[in-house]
Amino acid sequence: MTLFRRWKNLSIRLKFLTVFMVVLVLTAIGMYIMNLQLLRVVKDNDHMLNQSIPRLATHLQVKSTIMERINFVMLYVTTGDKEFRDRFYKTSDRAQALMQQLKANSSPDERKEIESFIIHSEDWEWILRDKVIPVYERQNKKDAIDTLNREAQPIAAHLMEEVEQMSQHRANEITRINQTMLGEAWKSVTFSYMIIAGTLLLAFLFALYMSRVMTRPVFSLLHGVRKMGQGDFSAQVQAETKDELGELSEAFNRMAVNIAGLVEELRQTNDRLREESIRAQESTRMKSEFLANMSHELRTPLTGIIGFAELLYEGAGGVLAPPQKEFTGNIVDAGEHLLSMIDDILDMTKIEAGKYELEMSCFDMKDLIDSTLIMMKPKAQQARIELMSHMPDTPCPVTADETRIRQVLLNFLNNAIKFSLPDRHVEVLLEYGEHEFTVRVVDEGIGIASDKLEKIFEQFYQNDGRLERKYEGAGLGLSLSRQLIELHKGILTVESEEHIGSTFSFVIPCVLSDSQKSVDEDFQKTEGRTLLLHPPEFSKDFSIFYRIVQESSIQFDHFMVKSEKDIVKAIHELFPDVVIVAAHYADELYMQMLTDVRAHWKGKLLAYIDQPIRLVERGQVMRTADQILLSLDEVLTLRHVPDNR
To answer: Which residue, 329, 332, 616, 339, is CA-closest to 458?
Structure first.
């Protein structure tokens, strides 16, 4: 018991090391015995082959000399060429040497058979040497051939048969010896396998023991972890041993205490961050309202300034001197430039508020590109830039907001001309597909650094931010262009290399779906269920939201979801026509909810966010949702068929 107790308190590393060494030693013994026996078999087999192969080779040589001698004699008596007779004598001498070698290498059991073969061979050779050849040399060719065919050839066939029998006897002996050695080797291998099997059994028993020893504290730790996952950080685990698992249990207990303190600190930090986020979003909203109000206030007097300046330029107040007319023209140009900036700011604020509506129409994209190039041609000629286009030969009908698509293309061309050096080309490419079309504007300008490719789409960002910068602009064009393309459910991208040029592209569907029309019109046509999904953080304010909505004519099913599994379950159970995802903020959790809903739902998807949302967050939401609702008023204006369950 003392030994077992000491073993139990050993570290897990020493336990595994001890058993591993025992298993390793037993396996090594078994492998050593098996290899030793196999080595002995290989040596015996090699010795046998070294003795047997020369004998078999000698048998073959003897058989060959028999054939050569009778063939040489046959050729001699038929052709009379004495060279064949001389070859016969040489082969006979070689055959005698082989006979002596065969006799010397034979075993006692084979010697009697070999001696009998040598006697028969000598008798056969005597017939050839002393009967056939002398008869032929006495000019009696016919008797020589008859003697050769009648006496010599049958004996030669018998001799070759005897040689074949000796070779077969030797081969049978080799087979017998091999079988004997393999039998002995198999006995050794079987014994080695028994040792290895015993080793594996020992390893299995140890693994079974260790699994029972290790799983008990692991299950205890797992129970504690589950309690912590449910929010109970007071869970403690009892340490039963003093090994690593016991130390792990004690460390878990300390960790639980520390986590409880950290969770409380994190909760307090989250509360502070939520308050700061609300203040920041409120500031963003106030900034947008300020820009919108100021833009409206500036637009009216600016329009008057431009109008009066145009009247002066046209001579309504009297003929102007050339310098005065030039200055008046500069006022008109600067006013129109400022008015364009104000219009961009107004468009941006409308998009941020989710109140921007596209004016959809059907038009030919080729005609739009051609007319836009004509508009930009004077500016391109002034900058010594050649405008080019490459478009399909067939018409390219699309359904989109023609004015806004032209605005995006004008912005692309204006930037391409502005940032290109003289005597260069700017090309517009149109790729028209079955479901979408792509427009690319390629220039040979100064290019954009790779670390600024995303920054150029931020509001008011300038690639060259110095006050004395060379190129004019407010930094709104690309940001507004991306928002307009995203409202068309499209994608705007840029590829650029410094000092080489840039390629700005946008891809939008040829025909927009009904889900991209105004949300009021779409809800008025809805005839099915509406499903409202919201995260747990929205639950504390949901009662207010639900009470206000219930006072209207809108009926809907609502679910609180914590995971993608909950989303799939709600969608598959109700089969709704419209899904609304509601939350306070467009944070990472909310964006993941939208992504999960879109992965399992291809119908109408609306996003309701009751706190102010930034432009970047709006763009992220619009890439997944069909429309953004920013207040309860927008929800209450929707009319939906009541649920008849």
So the answer is: 616
